[in-house]
């Protein structure tokens, strides 16, 4: 029997892998510049916003952050927080504004350098295998691929249901009884809150995630930080440089108009808090925790206060009108450091793992990865000519993995790809913050006082 042959390669100048916000932003610039390209998307454009967010999800950044090249949120509430479904609807309106050459339901299976220069991209589309030959490839698949769970998770008693935060939808998807949420980053803290508000008994194992005030001095903290230039500051300029990429994002929520997430308040209301989860006993039901609860709470509060002080200094230095701040005072202190939890005795029937993801670029055959499997690059430009990455957390700035920073990074990458020179189209976040969500007026400050 004759072995099946590969389909003849279709030729294009650029293949963009991924049709989320990063891939679409890349395509916008390529369409503008008249560059022949194709966008290959495994599902549908922007599908991950619907597939990996829970029912009550809201953005943790203000709506005015939602902007892509040639397209920005223009609704009635720039300082509010869109729900999951509103984000999906907003993002769905983007592609029709410029008509990207998008091939949906086309999963890329391999990317390799070709012998005669350029790249060969293999994919499986609706009609079967297909191959693309391109001068350049922009990988826009994000940095969150494989959900992380502890290697010993399969040894947990089968009486306990286990899911990853990527698969969490709503409290009623879990069996009755208590729920252990492991991880206190953005997803873990918000899922714990969602379960808590639904009346579930929640146990939360904390990591080292920091927290931030939702509002300070009459304005959203992230708007202050944007005006202060933090979303425009390159990662190399942060203390520790590229190590900033490893930091966990601050937990906060946009739910019900936005508010702080105060784990101490949850404890007062009955949530059980623990330190870092360390392991599982031989019986498959008893978990061990490190005595780090108090340190984790104190550290998160220290970051909260530090950010508020930074905002205060900015206000004073630039003589910005703003109402006085309110100092945070802890509402609860742990009386002990719990170091164990018997799942059966405590009635815990479910575990939600919210401890992150690891990258999976096994389909990319190019020498651009470090020892952890992450691509090495300078603002998305790799050492392999013609190979780029976009949409990664901290690709260049704090905003790189978010709507707010995508346009600037896409403009940089496509400019490098095409050799196009000229003034940047993308407005800095600091200028946007002043224009779209200005500081409180003097009259409102007087009224607040």
Automatic annotation (TrEMBL):
Gene3D superfamilies: FAD/NAD(P)-binding domain (3.50.50.60). Pfam families: Pyr_redox_3. Keywords: Oxidoreductase. It comes from the Bacteria. SUPFAM superfamilies: FAD/NAD(P)-binding domain. This is MSMEG_0569 family flavin-dependent oxidoreductase. It comes from Nocardioides cremeus.
